[in-house]
TrEMBL record:
It comes from the Bacteria. This is ISL3 family transposase.
Amino acid sequence: MNTSSIYHCLGLQDQQLLSTSYVGDTIQLKVKTKKDKLRCSRCKRMHVICCGVVERSFKGPMIGKKKCVIIIDVQRLYCKKCKIVRQEHLRFAKEQKSYIRSLEKMVLLLSSHMTIQSISRLLDLNWNIVKDIIKSHLKSKYHSPGLKGVKHIAIDEFAVRKGHVYMTCVYDLDKGVVLHVGKGKGSESLVPFWKRIKINKVQIESVAIDMSAAYILSVKTNAPKATMVFDHFHIIKKLNETISKIRRDLYNKEKDKVIKKSLKGSRWLLLKNPENLNLQKGEDSRLEKVLETNTTLFYAYYLKEELRELWNQDNIRDASKLLKQWIEEANETEIPQLKKMVELLTKHKTGILNWYKCNISTGPLEGINNKIKTLKRQAYGYRDLDFFMLKIKAMHQDIYAKCG
Ligand SMILES: [Zn+2]
């Protein structure tokens, strides 16, 4: 090792190598800042007078099998401009950090493909240091994603811990970027996002959301001119839940053992799209049998299939007609469980049909949701929610990285 190699291999700028020693499994590199490179850490100028030293050590990346530690007598400098005494400015490390920049770069390079734990093992680094490096990088890059040109967004919630902790995600539907992650699933989770929208004078044109009252109010208040589109996946999901409930209630009341048995295994058959039924396994005939013996289920199933057609119409007028007809038919069946669905669709008619004015949905967020699940598994459930939120914002970057 010499002065040139510590510069080229470890990025130790402005440093002169004084000595190299080997202590156990560690290489200790004693360095010193070249006299003509001493700078004030506040104004970065060179009008300084030396007034003592403090010994500090920094972690570097491993060199072969050896751990690497850089030891430096950091100069305390009096700056003639700032009129204060401070430790010298070190270009090879960030302020208040105990590792050098080249180690940081290596960790970040590995972080798009490896977990904190595996990086920590590979580089023989403390888990907290690895996390600190990744977190401060993500913070500087993704804390406030740019909002310029944002027009079409989707808002949706996802569960962090099963059913207990929720987060709200705002997604730019044009660029495929997560713009905001907020704690909770109410309107308060969106407050910082709307604040930034206002400051940046961004005009949101359309928003895809589910039919949650909190989100509706939040959009109406903060983006009154935006077209609100109620997501069709959520509507079908709600109807599927209703059908499941009808089936469950029927099962519980049914006395006939044969009918009860056929009802038992029919949940997925009822929810599956007919084109996905497995004919070789006889799923179609099993479904037929269930529907033949239960008039209530037959109507509910028929209505489910009819509602799916709502998004296959030629124009908003035809769709509006179909929705009106659907509501009438559902009312006529007098199935109590469908009542809520009728109320929901009647109340949110405009937002549902807005899909024909603006073809957007929260669908792309479902993809993000799946990736969040993987992220949770990789990290054994994130305890540091801020870190978790930053990881979500950086997710699209990882996707690019993985594509090469
Ligand atoms: Zn200064």
